[in-house]
Design goal:
Blueprint lengths: L1 E5 L4 H12 L3 E6 L15 E3 L5 H11 L3 E4 L6 H4 L3 H22 L3 E7 L22 H20 L2 E7 L1 E3 L14 H10 L5 E3 L11 E2 L1 E3 H17 L6 E4 L5 E2 H12 L6 E3 L14 H7 L7 H14 L2
Helix pairs in contact: 1-7, 2-4, 4-5, 8-10
Length: 320
């Protein structure tokens, strides 16, 4: 039994790889290093450098390493930029997923855990998002993730593919000081880079209908996220019942203002965030229930906000 992790050299994928290792499940990484780092891949894990658009390479990798399941994390993940690069986004996230699924079907690999996203919901008009909340993506990225879920669903009907899509919300923190979030668009890296450069972090809008006026989001620790992937894979391997979609949400929200306070506490850098105008399309609050995942995937919040900030900050400082 060996699982292939596409995108396993990225921030999230590298944590998934480590979680599989901790569960003593053999794992192989496929990554084109467009946003990942080879140094994030443990030295004892086979690493294949290449793209999910290369069906021949995927087939060769499956055969060489006896792959029995796939965790599909690879993809173009920049929702805002996807509006300017829709064709690239669809090529990577839709065409790439279709090529991967075709290679899996040809090799008889019949189980997959898919990295989906809260972006499939767009701006939901509910206090607590569930898996049944209407889907209304507002970017090519969100649309591509929803199409990815459809591809898995249709392959399930066509060839019996067993699958689970995990919808991520705001993934933060670090479970290994050698792996950090290097995204130029995520909140934690933006705040840390500002502080390291001697600049003042900023908040986009402080006049929302929330307790402190700043946006409320669902922040989850990357190590908890990775652990849920392992349990999903184990259920698929065992043939246990499993839902096709799970929200990995906390059931509770954290405001941007609260994050800034936690960052100041952890870093010891006293600052007052600059207040910038609202960004178009930013909803006041997006928080999801993780009840289904708690029932089936041992999903729970094992880390406090300070834990999340401290682990992320320590990993970023270690990379300097």
């Amino acid at each position: 039994m060996s699982w292939l992790v596409t995108g396993g050299a990225g921030y999230i994928g590298a944590h998934v790889v480590r979680a599989f290792q901790a569960a003593e499940i053999d794992v192989v990484v496929l990554d084109d290093l467009s946003s990942g780092f080879s140094a994030f891949v443990p030295s004892d894990v086979p690493f294949v450098q290449g793209s999910i658009l290369d069906g021949a390479l995927i087939s060769e990798t499956i055969q060489r390493y006896g792959i029995t399941g796939v965790v599909h994390v690879a993809g173009y993940k920049y929702a805002g930029v996807s509006v300017q690069r829709p064709l690239h986004t669809y090529q990577q996230n839709v065409t790439g997923t279709a090529i991967l699924l075709a290679a899996m079907a040809d090799a008889g690999v019949d189980r997959i855990v898919f990295s989906s996203s809260a972006a499939v919901y767009g701006t939901p008009d509910v206090d607590l998002v569930t898996e049944d909340t209407p889907k209304s993506p507002e970017s090519p990225y969100g649309e591509s993730k929803l199409i990815g879920e459809w591809l898995l669903r249709d392959q399930g009907v066509a060839v019996g593919l067993r699958h689970a899509s995990l919808r991520y919300f705001n993934v933060v923190g670090s479970g290994d000081p050698s792996v950090y979030d290097a995204s130029p668009h995520n909140l934690f890296p933006l705040v840390f880079e500002a502080l390291l450069a001697g600049r003042t972090p900023r908040i986009n809008g402080d006049d929302y209908a929330t307790p402190d006026g700043t946006c409320v989001r669902d922040y989850i620790h990357v190590a908890d996220l990775a652990a849920a992937h392992v349990v999903a894979a184990q259920r698929l391997d065992a043939g246990d019942p499993i839902e096709t979609v799970y929200n990995l949400g906390s059931g509770d929200g954290v405001s941007v203002g609260e994050i800034m306070s936690a960052v100041a506490e952890v870093t010891g850098i006293d600052f007052t965030p600059e207040i910038a105008p609202r960004r178009p399309g930013d909803p006041a609050r997006i928080v999801a229930t993780g009840e289904l995942a708690a029932r089936d995937l041992d999903w729970r919040m094992r880390y406090s906000l300070v834990d999340m900030v401290r682990s992320a900050w320590e990993a970023r400082r270690a990379a300097s």
